[in-house]
Design brief:
By secondary structure, the chain is an alpha/beta fold. It has helices at residues 27-39, 59-73, 88-100, 118-131, 142-145, 151-157, 173-182, 197-202, 217-228, 232-249, 256-264, 281-293; strands spanning 8-12, 44-47, 79-82, 105-109, 136-140, 163-168, 189-191, 207-210. It has a single domain, classed as Aldolase class I (TIM Barrel, Alpha-Beta Barrel). The chain has an 8-stranded parallel barrel, surrounded by 6 helices. The N and C termini lie far apart (47 Å).
Length: 300
């Protein structure tokens, strides 16, 4: 069997919660979300990442969300599970659990808060990849973790047989280009910044792990599909068309606005878990206008 290597549009899906006192996991809404994504033409799903509020899930909820997403996808698209933490031991345990639930790969973020050195991060990722039964996707997001996985470190980790891609969310096209240069363009880079999808593709990126595709999967998928088919100008126009929505989705902490947008689309309740709160009325009103501009069906 060929090794799974992610390419194209992957959605970092939110975790829907019910509007009850516990804000429990809403499985019917999760099923609707998965179906909406597949109908929108995405190439894969990323579950229990940052956008999925994984840090607020207990162990049983994590297993429920990952296992249910795999079940709902039913092999139609690959599923990647977020398994990273700032503890290598805990990351290994979570990775083992996710692999046992049938995911196609795991997304491992740089260890946050304890601020390891580049050598420490290389050792961390290498140990996880050594012991994971599924391919590992690196995740660099210094704005959230306080550490930046530098291009030289990515190039070293790219040599590992079980490390297959990088989600790059440092917000630097120069850094993306240096990684491409150091890996001779052979190591897949997935944009972790929705506003930089097409620019990343233009310098060698192979896809995106996206927040905006929760709300607009078809429009987001079209960016990669157009670019890959040589319709570069059309991809660029699509990127610009999505920019106002992207800016709205990050006008409050992610995924508060995304959940409100999907509430307006009739998919789920707009609730997040503390310390995140529900999006404001002003954000709701702005999202309703923007969704209508994009031709997306707002409910009520």
């Amino acid at each position: 069997m060929a090794k799974f290597i992610p390419q194209g549009t992957f959605t970092a899906i939110v975790t829907p919660f019910c509007a009850d006192a516990e804000r429990s996991v809403d499985l019917p809404a999760l099923r609707r979300l998965v179906e909406q994504q597949i109908a929108g033409g995405v190439d894969g799903l990323v579950v229990c990442g940052t956008t999925g509020e994984a840090s607020t899930l207990d162990d049983a909820e994590y297993e429920l969300v990952v296992g249910s997403t795999v079940q709902f996808a039913g092999g139609r698209v690959p599923v990647i599970a977020g398994t990273g933490s700032n503890s290598t031991k805990k990351t290994l345990a979570t990775t083992h659990k996710a692999c046992s639930l049938g995911v196609d790969g795991v997304l491992v973020v740089t260890p946050y808060y304890n601020k390891p050195t580049q050598a420490g991060m290389i050792a961390h990722f290498s140990q996880v990849a050594d012991h994971s039964s599924k391919p590992v996707v690196l995740y660099n997001v210094p704005g959230r973790t306080g550490v930046n996985l530098l291009p030289a470190s990515v190039a070293e980790l790219a040599k590992h047989r079980n490390i297959v891609a990088l989600k790059e969310a440092a917000g630097s096209l120069e850094q993306v280009q240096e990684i491409v240069m150091r890996t001779a363009g052979t190591f897949p880079i997935l944009s972790g910044e929705d506003a930089l999808c097409v620019p990343t593709y233009a310098v060698g990126g192979r896809g995106v792990i996206s927040v905006v595709s929760n709300v607009a999967p078809a429009l987001t998928s079209a960016l990669w599909n157009d670019f890959a088919a040589g319709r570069v100008a059309e991809a660029g126009r699509g990127q610009v068309r999505l920019l106002p929505l992207i800016k709205l989705l990050f006008s409050e902490p992610n995924p508060q606005p995304a959940k409100m947008a999907m509430h307006l689309l009739g998919i789920m309740e707009p609730v997040a878990r503390l310390p995140l709160i529900d999006a404001t009325a002003a954000t709701r009103d702005a999202l309703a206008v923007e969704l209508a501009r994009l031709g997306l069906p707002v409910h009520g």
